[in-house]
């Protein structure tokens, strides 16, 4: 029995415009176990979904999200005629599905003042506490989340090596580590993290050979642009 969770990175972003409702719905339709997505705050305090701090790369507009109102942002095309979604739209879609929702707070470049508090309020509003894991490259922010509510699950993102990651995560009170997958490709590292009681969700794994290796190593979740490929890999390993 393979228990590795299949988490769609920015939705099914390998085939549909990233971080759009289309990409989220396609991920759910093909049977992903969860969705990873990225959060920012508009000028008028609305949490919206986009990877970058600006809308230049992913829409037909330009400029910083923090300088637009939500209403203004909805005028832009995020691909296939899709709009930049609000967190409300995604949560409304997810609220009756028992799937994982990984909300990455994009507060490592712009320190959006109320992103933690506002995200937690949305989690309560939609009754999604048991489904959500909040993550960030900003580990101070994850400690702030725990101060507001210690029962909200948190994950520490990192893209370069850290010393004793399992012990570190435990010490600062996180539930999970979310490493760049190449940083945990050995059994000793995985075992060390698990010994500390910390979950491991790796990003971003788009090749089947790496998916197989990471499943074999026993990671808890794989974040991928191609949940269809990961589904294939899991099904084939299950058939054996
Ligand atoms: O949460 C995993 C992954 O999304 C972190 O990196 O830059 O794709 O948001 P990024
Ligand atoms: Mg992300």
TrEMBL record:
Residues 4-234 form the GP-PDE domain. It holds the Pfam family GDPD. InterPro entries: GP_PDE_dom (IPR030395), PLC-like_Pdiesterase_TIM-brl (IPR017946). PROSITE patterns: GP_PDE. This is Glycerophosphodiester phosphodiesterase.
